[in-house]
Design a protein that fits this description.
The complex is a heterodimer of chains A (267) and B (267). With 267 residues, chain A is of the alpha/beta class. Chain A is built from 10 helices and 10 strands. The model of chain B has no long low-confidence stretch (mean pLDDT 93). By secondary structure, chain B is an all-alpha fold. Classes of the chains: A alpha/beta (267), B mainly alpha (267).
Amino acid sequence: MIQNIVEIDSLSFGYKNRTLHKGISMSFPRGKVVAVMGGSGSGKTTLLRLIGGQLKPSDGEVRVDGQVVHQQNREGLYQLRRRMGMLFQQGALFTDLSVYDNVAFPMRELTDLSEGMIRDLVLLKLNAVGLRGAHQLMPTELSGGMARRVALARAIALDPDVMMYDEPFAGLDPISMAVTCDLIRTLNDALGTTSIVVTHDVEEAFSFADYIYFVADGVVAAEGTPDDLRQSALPFVHQFVHGEIDGPIPFHYPATDYKQDLLGHKG
Amino acid sequence: MIRSKVLLGLVRFLRKLGRDSIYQLGRLGAGARLFGLMMMSSGESFRRFRLVIREVYFTGVNSLIIISVSAFFVGMVLALQGYHTLEKYGSSEAIGVLVALALVRELGPVVTALLFAGRAGTAITAEIGLMKATEQLSAMEMMAVSPISRVIAPRFWAGVISLPILAALFSMIGILGGYLVAVPLIGVDAGAFWSQMQANVDWQFDILNGVIKSVVFGVACTMIALFEGYDAPPTAEGVSRATTRTVVTSSLVVLALDFVLTSFMII
């Protein structure tokens, strides 16, 4: 058995005129919770899409359980995806289906389980996220935090080997945040999953992750266990962990000289 | 000076024309590709016909009121106008034929398709565009469920099934409206109204051709609505523009196709 279930090897990717990743390498060992951190726009979400095979890298490769993702044909890719679960930033629940049907969706589509069995599994998954009582509600009747928990129940519906979380804490109140934090860790350990958590919430990531990668300027700027990183003297890590406004990551988007800009303005 | 300005304007115009043509050709290609992919993954729609039935309800049954009311008024106006002209030639008994032929051959399929584009087409575009904007299609893909076979194909077949039925209902209710104006209101002989219609409406040349038209319009309207939604930029503005384009493109395509089909059928 390969020890790292997901491996990213000198991966490069960019959109039309913007390079996002310049030779990133990461590895995600089985059973661990690994956080990928970095500022907004540093290509963290894109990284998840590359792992899921929704985007193709311009160079390098992503391997899931030893198989190169972008070399798979459609059938091979779908086989790999059946072993992955992804929690989207806003949950991405199907708005025309109830909470129950949302969680049942992957089971009905991908397995031959009987409705009775599906019912048991759906209630089990919903119970794990504390929302068994809400199974009849429609997604529009849920709060942001609840919607994300339902989406989490849906993502773990088929017990994936790899769970990917895209900004799971964005826009949550402190209680929902703590609940989500706890859920990620508990589900990871209970299901024997490997979790990849993309986030910029320092406190939360440091509290539950086994290992952390910092992405900046398209490369891995720092990596290590939370304890290592807390003591890190790297200016970038220091700025990020302490939330300082200016530092290696500048406050200003690259621009021409301010004075020149103002003087050059012809009204 | 003026010549160079004119030349510059001409160059700009040609450049824009070229750019727009390439863009539109690209979209046509993308639409054809979607159509091909959808045809290839339509098998599931027929194996799980329940999915299609559900969409027939949303696109077909929900369009019933607007179709019935419009048909009733169109039929009544046809009878009024027809009587006004036919009376001059002393052949007011032919009013039944006039109403029936106008509805079955032209107005039934065409007006139904135009109303369908406005009522069901826009709903399809907006729904799919919003599903894309809220990452529901992406989530489905990550679950190893193809959005084309699960979302696009059932809606397509539902549209293709609904439109001919709606067009048939349109013609039927239109004829009823025409009857109410011609017989009880104006006083045309009821026997003449129905027997002339029966004698002069041909099963193949009139009714079958009308059905063929409505099937073709069903394919065109539904495909345009689906493609516009699937291709819409995932923003509020993108979806609203796509919805408008659905109505405009569908209407023009229906009218153009009607001319082409009619010319084939008559010659």
